[in-house]
Amino acid sequence: MDLYGQKSKSIPQKIVIHLIEILILWLSYWILFQSGGVWFQRHLHIHNATENIDRRIIIFTFNILIFLRLAYMMIVLLKRKIPWEESVSVPFAFALYFIGYPLFVLPISAPIDGLDYFAIALFIIGCILNSGGEIQRNKWKKEPANKGKIYTQGFFKYSRHINYFGDILWVWNV
């Protein structure tokens, strides 16, 4: 399926993706701050450590940043057609982050330490490399003189796919 040659606003697909993402984000909040932690402890025997919720706040903040970045990318940067299959697969992939990471931090009550701050910094750097690189490339692509050329400026001067490297950093450090 050649998606990159097809341009479309794909508004219904984007609405579906965003609605599913918002639902999954709410589930993340429910797990981290409402009775979801208790439910997982009771039914799946995942300990619900409530003594220190700093990690939960950090993870949920990360989830919101990821959601906002995805929304900006889809609304502003993405020009290609989104097939209906992608309207389900994209939210499913992000459900792994929005629900999976809260389940990983649910049993942890240890205070935030230096390694956590380092991971937070790498998450931020990854987000900047991914989204910042895409924003730079989008601005460059709008210039008619650049049509058909490969973007090798901005963050992309360091790597052909600096945006993917940014993805690796933020995913690995959550």
From TrEMBL:
KW ATP-binding (keyword) present: no
Taxonomic classification: Bacteria, Pseudomonadati, Bacteroidota, Flavobacteriia, Flavobacteriales
Gene Ontology cellular-component terms listed: membrane
Record protein name field: DUF1295 domain-containing protein
Spans traversing the lipid bilayer: 15-33, 57-78, 90-108, 114-132
Keywords attached to this entry: Membrane, Transmembrane, Transmembrane helix
Organism: Gelidibacter gilvus
